[in-house]
Write a sequence for this structure.
């Protein structure tokens, strides 16, 4: 644990109010994830896994506490700045892929790069390379509804990586796929993060998926609790390049 | 339908107040416009009916003469030779009540002793009853109706300043006539009752009377008719009343057509909101189907919801229409007073007929607009609950068919219009078919333009450009319809705008031609062109004596009877021939034509030739002269935009040969070279001090005429604006729908790094594209509309031809209006977008 954490939650609470009722989902949860780590988050349905990931992504803000990502306290940013921050530092993979149905595969992937200010030509170039890396060369001009679930998720991964983020967040990336396809998607995710020194935080129900992580946390009673690593490592022993 | 299913539908209306609200608003606005215009029209018509009722009373027939009225002797003949006691002399004229908002009032001079059988509106009493002797208290005594008295707080003994022809006189209120019957009371409004002898003196009629009212059987009438001298005729009272109402028929039909258009645009709005609710509830509907609800039940459910919302809209619309109707009736009455007739209408009470029309049209339009979406809903298969894009792809498949149907409808409309002949109602039906038909082509045009705009957008702004174009295409069932509504509204703006512009510039041109003198002198007319007051005979000498006056022309405007009905005569000074541009058709050189006019031929105005179907050459006009019925050859047709009912122009030497009337209506003064017009005007005013005559320089008269013109189109302009507002709401609701539908997509984009500015950019790009397509469609459609309005509708309504002027600025404006309207419509949806939570948006399905 020699390096600074790239993600740090400092006594984060999150309440949801519905009418007169307030429900506390996270309760002074604290955690920190180091750069280059692959972290899996587990927990029962409704325990707050997605909530946690959303807080890290700046999609949601905590009721109290602080969320630090890459040296920035993102809950102090304005919503607009949060979007810009996310654009520069984070990639996000959804359970239901969330591809834009009216954009072709290539366009789906190149769009975030364009949003970051790259020229369409450059963005397309990079998108093509990434699509090759995820094994979808030749499908560039298909519309998403022509792809299988696994293919769609691979497009979504390429899309999340096109802006070359330091951190990749994935909310049940294999939750909607069969085991074998999910395995393939995990292979891909691991290769593209570990290989590039990125941090990957993924939410998963699957023990098989969690077993590939460097560390596993669960959420219990609103707190983030580390579990002994499935590979017997609770500490980082491998230093990625 | 089961109760619980019904409740599901109704609860849904309540749960989505924004969309239900839009649906209600669409119906309400459409209904309001229809009701308002209908109220204005029926109030005006009722005004006509009442005013003729008040004038004719219970008379069955009237004996009328030429412009100079009747000699007293006619009455003697009717009574003694004809033996008809039920006959009463009447003197009628107009004055302007200077202190009562300058409103025109009709003076009715009645003979107390012979009035008995005639006028019911004196509270059922005869003028000879006790109390009416006050009418003889003094020379200036008048009776007024209670409504007028109450409105202006007139009490007995109160002086009433009026302008009579070229003088100002003070009358005194000596009686206020109350009637328990509301209808009767209303018919008294706008009338001043006087003794017949006093009215003769007030109106400077000498011992002549305007007419004799009779209560006679057909046999008696025939007998009387045989006794009358040349130039004096017997007419039935009903006939007289009908001609008056016919005058404004075309004008009112035009307004009705425009108001229906607002309803049609409102229908687009309803369609859009219902379609949206179907798209959005696809999952719910699919689940309902899964639970065993039949397609027919779903269809009925959607229609029922729309009918409920429409009913609410109708309720609101009738109320709003009543409020708008008060203003509309003011505008319509003013125009009628400007152009046609003296009419006193105060307020527009809600009538069952107007409400009925509003209710029927509102509910009908609402349900009709919901049929297509309801059919879509009925076709939702249980499995489709899970397949989001099905409905839209089906909508896209029907786009070409809809366009083909629209094209056919437009062609049918064109054919109908060609076959309509002179029928204005059929012409309007054709016009509606063309507009609606072309509107149905809008979705196809949308898809086609987006296919072009996508790659261009891609080249210019990258993937976001493509995304914008494809989003518009994807939701074509709503974007296409919003574009159609906007295109129709904007094209109406262009079409009506071009028509008014063309009309105005034609009128301006024509004013240059017809107002040739430098200064005009006339007594202000109390009621538009219909009744022209008289200028005292000594005025021309006084005018010539003013330094700087080179020449004076006299004009006379009168109405005479003819087999074609009442005809307006313009009697002109024969000395100055008209230029070639004055004539629409004429045989030979302008000077030759004028020579023929001097020799006894007449010229007729274009609307006159149109109304009476005169041939371009070789026609004749029969006129009732003081020497009996005479036939006059028509030497040519001239442009005239002053009266819609038409005008016959003859030379004063000819007029004086056939009529005894020597009165003057107005003077035209030519200023000698080297004299400033302003100075001559000032001198003329000084010379005519003490009279009520107005001295108006040419330029001011022109400006005044154009002001009347603009007033005439005030209602039209207001309706035009309203159509755009309704369309704007349509676009707005479509955008709201788009945003709601794309909640998750937009949230995803935001997670991917779409910044706030890019979000605005994307939305504005989408709406800009929609606005541009609408604007581009509106340009040709608007031009077509203008051509039809100018060359078909106007000619068939009024007989006026005009040059169509294409002001390019109007097209630019229309395009800008479309784009700006669309862009503005996106502001609220964007703000709403900012308020929603990103996390919640991602969770939405
Ligand atoms: N916008 C919201 N409003 C109210 N409650 C919410 C909201 N978002 C989440 N919740 C609640 O917070 C709790 C945690 O939700 P979250 O989605 O984080 O669970 P999760 O651990 O991801 O569950 P799953 O494994 O089913 O995805 C749940 O009880 C959920 O109902
Ligand atoms: Mg979750």
């Amino acid at each position: 644990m020699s390096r600074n954490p790239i993600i740090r939650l400092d006594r984060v609470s999150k309440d949801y109010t519905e009418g007169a009722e307030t429900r506390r989902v996270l309760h002074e949860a604290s955690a920190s994830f180091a750069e280059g780590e692959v972290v899996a988050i587990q927990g029962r349905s409704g325990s707050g896994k997605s909530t946690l990931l959303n807080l890290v992504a700046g999609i949601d803000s905590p009721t109290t506490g602080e969320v630090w990502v890459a040296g920035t306290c993102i809950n102090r940013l304005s919503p607009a700045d949060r979007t810009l921050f996310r654009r520069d530092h984070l990639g996000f993979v959804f359970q239901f892929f969330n591809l834009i149905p009216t954009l072709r595969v290539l366009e789906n992937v190149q769009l975030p790069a364009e949003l970051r200010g790259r020229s369409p030509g450059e963005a397309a170039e990079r998108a093509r390379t990434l699509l090759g890396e995820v094994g979808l060369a030749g499908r560039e001009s298909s519309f998403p509804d022509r792809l299988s679930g696994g293919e769609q998720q691979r497009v979504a991964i390429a899309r999340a990586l096109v802006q070359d983020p330091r951190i990749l967040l994935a909310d049940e990336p294999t939750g909607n796929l069969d085991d074998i396809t999910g395995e393939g998607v995990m292979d891909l995710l691991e290769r593209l993060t570990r290989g590039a020194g990125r941090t990957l935080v993924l939410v998963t129900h699957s023990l098989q998926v969690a077993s590939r992580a460097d560390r596993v946390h669960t959420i219990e009673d609103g707190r983030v609790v580390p579990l002994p690593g499935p590979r017997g490592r609770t500490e980082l022993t491998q230093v990625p390049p | 339908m089961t109760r619980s299913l019904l409740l599901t539908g109704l609860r849904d209306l309540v749960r989505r107040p924004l969309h239900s609200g839009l649906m209600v608003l669409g119906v309400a606005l459409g209904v309001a416009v229809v009701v308002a215009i209908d109220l204005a029209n029926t109030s005006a018509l009722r005004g006509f009916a009442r005013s003729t009722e008040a004038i004719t009373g219970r008379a069955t027939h009237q004996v009328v003469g030429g412009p100079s009225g009747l000699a007293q002797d006619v009455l003697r003949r009717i009574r003694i030779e004809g033996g008809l006691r039920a006959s009463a002399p009447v003197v009628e004229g107009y004055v302007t009540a200077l202190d009562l908002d300058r409103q025109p009032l009709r003076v009715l001079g009645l003979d107390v002793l012979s009035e008995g059988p005639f006028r019911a509106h004196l509270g059922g009493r005869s003028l000879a009853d006790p109390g009416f002797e006050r009418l003889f208290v003094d020379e200036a005594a008048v009776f007024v109706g209670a409504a007028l008295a109450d409105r202006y707080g007139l009490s007995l003994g109160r002086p009433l300043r009026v302008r009579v022809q070229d003088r100002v006189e003070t009358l005194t209120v000596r009686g206020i006539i109350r009637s328990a019957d509301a209808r009767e009371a209303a018919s008294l409004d706008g009338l001043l009752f006087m003794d017949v002898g006093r009215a003769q003196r007030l109106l400077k009629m000498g011992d002549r009377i305007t007419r004799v009212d009779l209560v006679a059987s057909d046999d008696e009438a025939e007998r009387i008719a045989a006794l009358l001298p040349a130039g004096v005729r017997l007419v039935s009272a009903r006939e007289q009343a009908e001609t008056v109402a016919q005058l404004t028929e075309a004008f009112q039909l035009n307004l009705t057509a425009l108001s229906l258009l607002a309803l049609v645009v409102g229908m687009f709005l309803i369609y859009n909101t219902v379609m949206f609710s179907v798209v959005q509830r696809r999952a719910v509907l699919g689940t309902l189907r899964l639970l065993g609800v039949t397609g027919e039940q779903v269809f009925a459910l959607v229609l029922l919801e729309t009918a409920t919302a429409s009913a609410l809209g109708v309720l609101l619309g009738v109320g709003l229409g009543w409020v708008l109707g008060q203003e509309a009736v003011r505008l319509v009455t003013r125009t009628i007073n400007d152009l046609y007739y003296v009419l006193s209408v105060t307020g527009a009470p809600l009538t069952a007929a107007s409400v009925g029309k509003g209710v029927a049209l509102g509910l009908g339009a609402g349900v009709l607009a919901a049929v297509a979406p309801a059919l879509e809903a009925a076709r939702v298969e249980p499995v489709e609950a899970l397949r989001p894009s099905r409905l839209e792809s089906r909508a896209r498949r029907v786009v070409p068919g809809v366009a083909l149907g629209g094209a056919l409808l437009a062609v049918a409309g064109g054919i109908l219009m060609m076959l309509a002949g002179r029928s204005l109602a059929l012409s309007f039906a054709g016009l509606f078919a063309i507009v609606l038909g072309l509107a149905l082509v809008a979705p196809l045009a949308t898809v086609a333009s987006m296919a072009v705009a996508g790659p261009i957008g891609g080249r210019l702004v990258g993937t976001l450009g493509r995304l914008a174009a494809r989003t518009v295409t994807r939701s074509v069932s709503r974007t296409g319809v919003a574009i159609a509504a906007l295109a129709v509204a904007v094209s109406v703006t262009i079409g009506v705008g071009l028509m008014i512009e063309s009309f105005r510039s034609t009128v301006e041109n024509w004013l240059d031609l017809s107002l040739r003198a430098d200064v005009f002198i006339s007594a202000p007319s109390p009621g538009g062109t219909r009744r022209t007051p008289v200028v005292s005979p000594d005025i021309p000498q006084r005018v010539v004596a003013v330094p700087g006056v080179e020449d004076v022309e006299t004009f006379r405007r009168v109405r005479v009877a003819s087999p074609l009905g009442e005809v307006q005569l313009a009697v002109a000074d024969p000395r100055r021939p008209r230029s070639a541009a004055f004539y629409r058709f004429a045989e030979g050189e302008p000077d030759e034509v004028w020579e023929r006019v001097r020799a006894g031929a007449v010229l007729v105005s274009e609307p006159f030739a149109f109304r009476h179907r005169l041939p371009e050459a070789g026609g004749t006009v029969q006129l009732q002269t003081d020497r009996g019925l005479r036939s006059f050859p028509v030497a040519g047709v001239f442009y005239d935009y002053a009266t819609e009912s038409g005008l016959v122009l003859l030379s004063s030497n000819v007029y004086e040969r056939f009529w005894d009337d020597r009165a003057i209506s107005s003077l035209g003064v030519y200023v000698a070279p080297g004299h400033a017009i302003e100075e001559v005007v000032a001198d003329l005013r000084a010379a005519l001090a003490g009279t009520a005559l107005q001295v108006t320089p040419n330029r001011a008269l022109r400006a005044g005429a154009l002001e009347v013109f603009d007033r005439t189109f005030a209602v039209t302009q207001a309706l035009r604006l309203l159509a755009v507002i309704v369309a704007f709401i349509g676009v707005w609701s479509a955008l709201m729908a788009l945003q709601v539908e794309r909640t998750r997509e937009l949230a995803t984009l935001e997670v991917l790094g779409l910044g706030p500015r890019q979000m605005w950019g994307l939305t504005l790009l989408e709406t800009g594209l929609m606005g541009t397509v609408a604007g581009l469609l509106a340009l040709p459609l608007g031009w077509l509309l203008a051509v039809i309005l100018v060359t078909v509708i106007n000619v068939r309504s009024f007989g006026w031809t005009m040059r169509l002027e294409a002001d390019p600025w109007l097209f630019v404006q229309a395009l800008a209006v479309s784009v700006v309207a669309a862009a503005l419509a996106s502001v609220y949806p964007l703000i709403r977008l900012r308020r929603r939570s990103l996390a919640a948006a991602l969770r939405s399905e």
Summary: Residues A 16, 18, 25, 43, 45-51; B 839-840 surround adenosine-5'-triphosphate (ligand 1) (CB under 6 Å). Strands of chain A lie at 5-18, 21-34, 38-42, 64-69, 72-73, 90-93, 167-171, 199-203, 215-220, 223-227. The longest strand of chain A covers residues 5-18.
